[in-house]
Amino acid sequence: MASFPARARFFAGAIALALSASAHALDNTPAAKVVVTPLASTTVTANGQPIVLPQKNVQVLVSSFEIPPGASLPVHMHPSARYAYVLEGQLQVTNAETGKSTSYKTGDFIVEMLGTWHQGANVGAEPVKLLVIDQVEEGTANTLLKK
């Protein structure tokens, strides 16, 4: 530090001291432990399709859904990737083309079908609460309703 003027040495020393104190404070957490629990790892959707992402201007949309007991969503499809995490409840998703149904419960992760007509229904006694993440081309919708 011989080439630094005294004021520069002071600021450099103060910054180094502050950073080392911050790092020490972060490392000094004896009781708090971070727990990472893998929830899903897949390369395919719920019906076995490869996951395909938009090729340009990707936009991430995050929503929460609450579906009352006995309620059903309309038959719909997604042109782009949609992921859902079941926070509460029991959701049954039916492929409208094949009639095959899959049930999801609290803690399940769903990689939704692409370009396939399907419908979700709350088949439990409590509301279904979902955290939904869409990856779309910017400015486009990710749900198309069947007419």
Describe the structure in your own words:
By secondary structure, the chain is of the alpha+beta class. It contains one helix and nine strands; from the N terminus they run αβββββββββ. Strand 4 and strand 5 form a beta hairpin. The longest helix has 22 residues, at 6-27.
Kindly state the number of beta strands: 9
Order of helices and strands: HEEEEEEEEE
Please tally the helical runs, counting DSSP H or I stretches of 4 or more residues: 1
Report how far the terminal alpha carbons are from each other: 73 Å
Low-confidence stretches: 1-12
- Please bin the fraction of helical residues: 10-25%
Which class do the helix and strand fractions yield?
alpha+beta
Report strand order across the widest sheet.
1-8-3-6
Approximate strand percentage: 25-35%
Q: Rg, please? A: 24 Å
| Largest sheet descriptor | 4 strands, antiparallel
Average pLDDT, rounded to a whole number, is 86
Shape: globular
